[in-house]
# Entry
Amino acid sequence: MTWLCLLQNRMIRSGLGRGLSVLSRNSLSIRSYHLYASGLGCHGALGDGITTEVTEENSPLRVESVKELDIVSADCGWGHSAVVTYDGNLYAFGRTHDMRNTVKVGRLWNKNPLLAKLMVNFGAFLSVDEPLPRHIEILDENHNRKTIAGVRCSAGTTAAITDDGQVCMFGSNRYGQCGIGNLDSFVWQPTQLKNVNESIVDVALGFQHGLALSRNGEVYVWGKGERGQLGNGITLEDKVQVRETPEKLSKDYFENEKVISVGAGFNSSLVLTENG
# Structure
């Protein structure tokens, strides 16, 4: 499990990553934070430029590779991490697309570290390996750079939220977890979330599904849903168990209350309404 918190130890986010990331106030800047990380870093997810493990028993280590960036937001996936800077740039590091090999290596690490190290390279051709932060440029239809306001990471999937409320997805997509209208195994270039025509203020990513919250309190879901994680009635008995594009959930599910927050677990989802 991954935790992001401020210097005052107030938890601000939990995720699916195998490790710990901490944002602490940058004393030289009133607008940004330092980034600290620990945990399993065999795919470069710690941004340290190497593929070694920093165990959870050790104190978090500052990520030196991003110390020159004015970081205001960060999130961790299973084998990769991402940060957003004050000027709206997105950087990612680790294995951004390969989910299956990341899961196998994580499970094997405690049982047979040597074999796990050998497996690190398996699946690399199916992903983008970046042991150091790489700038991810997202352009609009006129080839102008989009300003990124937030980022969410999951198992080989990343969602970038722009300052104008759009969501751009990239990564693993075998079960439609990128929500772009197809089931291509991978989405290499950041692609805008389909079927959403209103401003999005937050995104939550589960193992192979996602949720988006609009400024008006509407909830959209997409991806794999055979365990009920989409909240739209899909079960294992349904012939079609995925949603390639986001589906807006009826407000009847929430007793017509406005939703103010969304969250996602491994195969679960939750929403918080304004009346609690």
